[in-house]
Amino acid sequence: MEKYYVSTRDKNRKISPKKAILEGISPEGGLYVWDDLDTISIDLEQICKQSYQENAFTILRPLLMDFSDEELKECIEKAYTNSFSSSDITPIRKVGDIYVLELFHGPTSAFKDVALTLLPQLMKTALKSEDAKAMILTATSGDTGKAALEGFKDVEDIGICVFYPDQKVSQIQYRQMATQKGNNVKVFAVEGNFDDAQSKVKELFMDLDLEKEASQKNILLTSANSINIGRLVPQIVYYFESYKYLVNHHVIQLGDKVSFSVPTGNFGDVLAGYYAYLMGLPVQRFYVASNANHVLTDFLQTGIYDRNREFIQTISPSMDILISSNLERLLYYMSGKDTDFVNACMSSLHQTGRYQIPQELLNKIQSLFGCAYLDDEQTKQGIREVYNKEGVVLDPHSAIGYMTAKQAEERPVVSLATASPYKFSQDVLEALGTSCQEELSAMHSLQKICTDPIPQGLAQLETLPILHKEVISISQMKDVVKQAMEDLL
Ligand SMILES: N[C@@H](CCOP(=O)(O)O)C(=O)O
User: Fold this and answer.
1) Does ligand 1 lie within 6 Å of residue 293's CB atom?
2) Is 337 a catalytic residue?
3) List of domains in the chain
4) Is 140 in the pocket of ligand 1 (CB under 6 A)?
5) What job does the chain carry out (predicted)?
């Protein structure tokens, strides 16, 4: 079995997992993938008997081949001890006939915590073999930024710069990032949208001048976004965990198939599910749930990916994305690991903003992936409906996932709840018929109807000073990264 990851755009680019984690993306712009994923067969019976931490080890063991058993166990132990408010890490709640997988019980109340509590540990371990420092560049549409800041704050020999779209994240998401403490962090609002920030970050990873300056300082530039395999693979675990729940609660029998509904913008979360499927998880279908920026829905229905459209700011800002990075990895696997094909699609996307895949490939993708999208009005209606019928308050992203799950023909369906409703208090309250002008007081009003208390990390926002106020243009991003290398490392 091959021990190396390769690039989706260059098979000759072979790299160990540790190096892939430290590089983030491949120098020619491809994403790292592992060709032998479908030769792994995770023992489901064993999964159903083990704890979350044990399952994380079982699942990540074959994917992170150059980590020793001891290293991997230690990383997992450090990531998941006392950092989640639920001992299950990712508990399930039955809401109507849908199984809602709650991924927001970590330090920053979003699903990103599941991977961003572990990635810093993996990166620290990988750095030991390099004798270098790392600078992490992260683009965020709201959730990744805070989770990455929290995960990497004050980690020795690692600095982090986060770029979020100015005025295009929720008030709570903004406060979470703008109040971030830590002697190795920088946070910037950028003039533009998430796609602008993500594209620029990718460009910076390929910038030879920046690379030269970094390497003179013995610094590696890397990513905390799901383009980094170290960010992506920890998310595979919760798909197996939800299967464990369904078996252990006698909803299904071992071997039965399950469907998943996944709200997603960058395609990372649903791709982690597809990885679980390749590794032996019995899956009927994945439903890709989108908001008004339904570039993925259109792609899955027509085979045409076209980002040439209006960018819509929605009440589910974490999914306000038109360039879905991880789709590249799906195309790689589904096309039979055809790097020429991936290259052609990606260069067409770069040059014209669109590409089209052959009908045969579309049929193959459609046999596993369904899709739906909800605009803001439908999202609010969904939040209202779930609350009125089931007494459960969902955040806008999770409501999109839930309503998509309801439309699915199959049962059981696990719907991924990606963030706490408190992160979007104003919009959730408005959906429920109450308005509140101020986000922090909105959190308190929401508490009166939510069964869960306000998470500690959000409750403390009221008392924390704003530490990061800089608003920069996209073209200034390179300069601030250079400065951050000086200041932080
Ligand atoms: N939804 C994300 C956007 C970045 O996605 P990632 O999974 O690649 O980090 C966010 O909230 O920042």
Assistant:
1) no
2) no
3) 92-107+232-457 (3.40.50.1100)
4) yes
5) Catalyzes the gamma-elimination of phosphate from L-phosphohomoserine and the beta-addition of water to produce L-threonine.
